[in-house]
Design goal:
By secondary structure, the chain is of the alpha/beta class. Helix content is 45%, strand content 12%. It has eleven helices and six strands. The longest helix is centred in the middle third of the chain and has 17 residues. It is elongated and about 65 Å long.
Length: 271
């Protein structure tokens, strides 16, 4: 499933907080760039992150709100707004994933049945999307995250169930091309790729999912159902995903051994 851009669906409380935040910034005469470079005690965040907060597309932490309150010299007003509007605000299930994926500092993904969209070749994606060229282009556009210029690309870890290598998508030629892309990914994309031993006795067998770590170290997760994708950040639900992730990681092969497995399956099954 391709995460959809949902027009007009922004959390009202986060949007209201963001508008007030923008007014405070503009009252200081600062651009998003000016404020971004002052954040995190001078370590900075990207201007895109400031923009995401101002447009209600991300939920900042209490620590970030406290720091911004001091930098913008608003005497606790921004902090009070955070308590009223952001503290108990969570992303609804329909909240779009793409801005999160595009701005994340780290992405950790578990793929149970198919190659993750960020690692798919156009032909592999075209089969999964029933030949819809527009959706294929959208999926390929997501892969620009690996070469983004506005900030460093995210640190990406992809954990792939061994069964994914055996599951035919399209025909053997499509699979060979996809395998070649996976083999090159650690070098060309700078990602960590791990094959996970195929077993039925771990929590990861429930669903594929991705956990994004944002610039302020907040975590947001995404998983899919047959009907739609869900974006979550609730502590208990994230805790359950982390438990599954620990079990998956315990079965994962190192990168070099994972590449050996991919080569072996390619030679034995897809030639």
């Amino acid at each position: 499933m391709t995460p959809q851009r949902l027009k007009g669906k922004v959390s009202p409380s986060l949007l209201h907080f963001g508008r007030r935040f923008r007014r405070f910034r503009e009252a200081k005469g600062w651009s998003q760039d000016n404020l971004a470079c002052r954040a995190r005690n001078g370590q900075g965040v990207t201007p895109q992150y400031i923009g995401a907060v101002e447009t209600g597309r991300t939920r900042c932490t209490l620590e970030f709100a406290q720091e911004m309150d001091g930098l913008l010299e608003v005497n606790g007003e921004l902090l009070a707004l955070w308590e009223d509007l952001v503290k108990d605000a969570t992303f609804p299930t329909w909240y779009e994933w793409l801005p999160i994926e595009e701005t994340a500092e780290e992405l950790t993904s578990w793929s149970l049945s198919l190659v993750h969209g960020l690692l798919q070749t156009p032909r592999y994606a075209e089969v999964l999307l029933y030949g819809d060229k527009e959706k294929v282009e959208e999926r390929m556009a997501r892969q620009r995250v690996f070469t983004r210029k506005e900030s460093s690309p995210p640190g990406c870890t992809f954990l792939i169930d061994e069964g994914v290598l055996q599951r035919e998508v399209g025909d053997p030629e499509v699979m060979r091309e996809q395998f070649d892309h996976l083999l090159a990914a650690p070098r060309t994309l700078g990602v960590a790729l791990h094959i996970v031993k195929m077993r039925g006795d771990h929590l990861g067998n429930v669903s594929s999912f991705t956990i994004a770590t944002m610039e302020d170290r907040r975590e947001v997760a995404y998983f899919e159902s047959p009907a739609r994708g869900f974006t979550i950040e609730e502590y208990d639900e994230l805790g359950a995903l982390h438990r599954a992730l620990r079990e998956v990681r315990s079965l994962a092969l190192p990168v070099d051994q994972s590449l050996d497995v991919i080569r072996k399956v390619r030679a034995e099954r897809w030639t």
